[in-house]
Amino acid sequence: MDPSLSIEKLKNVGPRNLSRLYNLGIKTLKDLLWHFPVRYEDYTQTLSISNIEPGQKVNVQGQIVQINSRRIFPRRMSVTNAIVQDSTGAVKVVWFNQPYIEETLPEGTFVSLAGKVNLDKHGLYLSSPAYEKIVNNESGAMKQESGIKDSQPTIHNSSLKHTSGLVPVYPETEGVTSKYLRFLIKPLLKTIKLNDPLPPAILQKYNLPQIDEAMKTIHYPLDPGQADLAKERFAFEDLLLFQLKALLERRKLNQLKSISIKFDQEFIKDFISKLPFELTKDQKIATLEILKDIEKSYPMNRLLEGDVGSGKTVVALIAAMQIAKAGFQTVFMVPTEVLANQHFKTVSSLAGQDLLRVGLLTSSACKLNGSDFKRSELKKEIADGGVDLIIGTHAVIQKDVSFKNLAMVVIDEQHRFGIQQRAALVKNSNPQILNDKQAPNSQIGNSQQIVPHLLSMTATPIPRTLALTIYGDLDISLIKEKPKNRQKIITKIVSPSKVKEAYRFVRDEVAKGRQAFVVCPRIEVSDPRKEIKVSGERSKMNILWADVKAVEEEYQKLSGSVFPELQVAMLHGKLKSKEKDEIMKKFKDGDFDILVSTSVIEVGVDVPNASIMMIESAERFGLAQLHQFRGRVGRSEHQSYCLLISSTSDKSVNQRLKALEECDDGFELAEKDMSIRGPGEFFGVKQSGIPDLGMASLANVDLIKKARLEARLLLKENPSLTSYPLLKDRLESFQKLTHFE
């Protein structure tokens, strides 16, 4: 059978199940086979009925000696009772609302059962166990055994899918159970032939199984060790593809041409000396790394990682100053209008109009050096080279925005922009043939189309393993130091019983002239049933989110009953841009005491007078995100506080929040967060195209190092991978699938 065959070609997949399988991302036989188990039920040991005990999950095999069904009124319920016997004894079995079982398993049938043993006043029984008939050739052997007193039945039929051995449990959706998936997958394992993309030498070197063997043992292992080895083999394959992709991207980038901007040390020293603060050691190192990068004749591709408030913006500004002095342009792209306005004000005040012509371009604002401009006039200025640094949102990448000589693109909070948006920006930013103008401090060959340097900035610290894989094609600069004289933020977990005390504390702080943020996880309360757009586990998560306090609800509560004497404002994503900006401006100016917000506050907002960050239902957020919220306060000389309001008293849930009380290092918290939630959820790549197993492997440092080494060796030996056609094909499909937004 061909793995690329559509799933609808399988005999037992009808129209109803087809759409359900699509919900799980299963469209081909390959998708089905790569739908790996999340865990296994251990039914490797078949117990004699006389040896079973309450609370055990067991596999027993025997003969149905009695079975009947009855309806219970008025509960509209049916109960099927059976007695199953082996050579050592008998046990009662109960199924609910499955009356057809009486016909499926008539008296005399030999069955294999798997389930939990319960105890009531009538004795032991199995409640709703999984069941399978034992086929004729095996039941004959069982009859012979059952004639021997106290013998142990040992029927292990290889055709058993659901009740014997390590039974796979898969990610499910409504209408597609693990039982149905096992029913589809097990026969395929016998008939399908897979081509192994991994070179035999690599498999041998690391003692990894070939793909056919690994596929069988990941679905139906004989023991846990087999399952682990199969998982490692598939994880290694994904990591090798990650590494090959990153190394090829880097090589491709190094073959492109970019504007070489000469590093003018005296000019940069003079600018830094006039800043109203001293740069930290990390800021100086990052600045030097960037200035050295933009001297090169191929494009920079650097990620600047820095904790909230660590001073990434000024580092990017210094590079933009150098580029402007050389006669070229920089674009600074941010995810929200609130942040664009904030950066515009910060950069304008630090640079001064004499040194840098700074433009702001968003969907609702157009400014140049502090003055309002018509959109058409500002676009003309940009196209004519009259703007050195353009700060903006998605408005910057519209088709009618073109640049005269763009040398660098800075993207803040990189993964908030989609791949297509980045591609559009690069497309619009290629300075065309630059024969007419060669700036004095730049070198570029005539008639050469160029690609701008790229600096990505993020306040989400990337764990080391993700930096080696997802960001493998980037150079990375780290800013770990906090600016001098920055006080540590005091963080406290507030249990439901202590919320009133927390409100009292907020009131006291406001009385001292301070302000407070209140963050809620979801935008508004609505009918949870309407919120459910998918089934299974994800639908449960949607319901959980729907139950979380809404901003509107929280605003009404705080402004109406908790703080009626204070000025409370509300900010969420459904407000128009102008309304958001107006609310933020008033809050920053002190017109409001408390701002209730969704997680829109996470990105970049700077209100120095705010000293309290109160986060409702804090356990709903990841540690890295909570740390970013916390960084929105503590930006002045005032002592600041972060109050983590938990909606549960469950100690195990709140244990995770303890890490925030004890640690204020974003990089350390990111590592903890990824270990708790897993790389996929940590990075928000549920739609990344990476299989769950491949995503989970991003936490395995040793495996990443092995994959990185082998990727380098393969490309050194055979740069085009023509000697490894199966691996090359697999890499091409992997590159199409994987993306990070």
Features:
single chain, 741 residues, alpha/beta, OB fold (Dihydrolipoamide Acetyltransferase, E2P), Rossmann fold, 4 domains, 6-stranded parallel sheet, 27 helices, 39% helix, globular
Portion in strands: 15-25%
pLDDT < 50 stretches = 144-154, 415-420, 430-448, 523-549, 685-689
CATH class call of the largest domain: Alpha Beta
Strand order of the largest sheet: 14-13-12-15-11-16-18-10-19
What is the number of E strands? Answer: 25
The helix content is: 25-40%
Q: Looking at CATH, which topology of the largest domain would you report?
A: Rossmann fold
Mean of residue pLDDT values: 81
Description:
- By secondary structure, the protein is of the alpha/beta class.
- It folds into 4 domains: 62 residues, no CATH class; 121 residues, Nucleic acid-binding proteins (OB fold (Dihydrolipoamide Acetyltransferase, E2P), Beta Barrel), CATH 2.40.50; 220 residues, P-loop containing nucleotide triphosphate hydrolases (Rossmann fold, 3-Layer(aba) Sandwich), CATH 3.40.50.300; 174 residues, P-loop containing nucleotide triphosphate hydrolases (Rossmann fold).
- Helix content is 39%, strand content 19%.
- It has 27 helices and 25 strands.
- The chain has a 9-stranded mixed sheet, sandwiched between helices. A 6-stranded parallel sheet has the order 20-25-24-21-23-22, sandwiched between helices.
- Helix 11 crosses helix 12.
- It is globular and about 95 Å long.
- About 9% of the residues have low confidence.
